[in-house]
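User: I'm putting together notes for a lab meeting next week and I want to include a structural view of one of the chains we've been expressing. I don't have a solved structure, so I'd like a prediction I can at least talk through. The sequence is below, exactly as it appears in our construct file.
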Amino acid sequence: MKYDFDKLTDRKGVGSLKWDVPEGELPMWVADMDFEAAPEIVEALRARVDHGIFGYSVVTEDWYQAYQGWWGRRHQLEIEKDWLVFCTGVVPAISSAVRKLTTVGENVLIQTPVYNIFFNSIGNNGRKILESPLIYDGVEYSIDFEDLEKKLADPQTTMMFLCNPHNPVGKIWDRETLARIGQLCAKHHVVVLADEIHCDLTDPGCEYVPFASVSDVCRENSITCIAPTKTFNVAGLQTAAVMVPNPVLRHKLNRGLNTDEVAEPNAFAVGGAVAAFGRGEDWLEELRAYLADNKRQVRSFMEERLPEIKVVPSQATYLLWLDCSRITEDAGELTRFIRQDSGLYLTEGEEYGACGKRFIRMNPACPRQRLLEGLERLERSVRKYCSAGKA
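Assistant: Thanks for the context. Below is the predicted structure for the 391-residue chain, given as structure tokens.
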């Protein structure tokens, strides 16, 4: 391999959210990879640092070209320049959209279990969280379309968050499913906000379908949040885009982003994105293969040494959703026990909705040696938990 994903970079003492933990703990929780950014990105940022002046920045032409080229080349979606609006992050864009396109007291629909920050973006802005839980058959997840349409038909429901691919269950929604969602939302006058930040983190041989590419209906009734940050592990650069083909929705969202002061780039946001999309493709292909191997490593470990924990099949994201129902009805208690016992820091599934109560989310996006250490800690703690009669 050209790139070294086995390198054990020490992230303590640099202000890392993920690694701001007590000594001896091993964090495998937040969606942040333990890999250094592509050298091509680091080189571009270093050149910007060497320039030595960090004044106000603008969105340059090559930023638009970078997004257009990437989505056209990798996802067969031809994006017009006017559709793109810069923002400092996907979460700020989501919150701005909620404030600008919905009214206090209205419903925003989510499909649980789902990214926990969705709850904050809705509740913190005085809107009501309306859950349409996904169906879990003991193996994989699917959409309950009867429940979905019933809740979309509520006149108080004005926006739906679509996680595509889905975090935390790792599901890639197919074209037929997305088309049906688009038709139902248009029928009931519900705007779709598609969070597609994980779109490039699919397993080799698996490709996601951009919601806006499915049909004219989907394109004209949607706002899509995209970014290089999750893919290239550069969240700290605060760089993202909102893609809005509908000019009326785009105008409203543009005003919301500017009102919220999240529409201006810092000195590294534009150059970092341009370098990622323009020069990071080889790095990404090797990363995808490495992540797929890590996920296989976790599945094999569970099958051989912890068969009580079932790994939900994942086609996308580097996250894994662990079904702990054979051990406990309260995976939150198990998660806390594991952290206290072995220092392995995982995320309890209930953070993603009540239907996640028997699950744990694991982030295996780290060098293989660190992953294996985490799995060893997990096994020791689970064995202690079970032998103590807690299971």
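A couple of points you could mention at the meeting. The two ends are 43 Å apart (CA to CA). The chain has two domains: 26-39+281-385, 54-279.

User: Perfect, that's what I needed.
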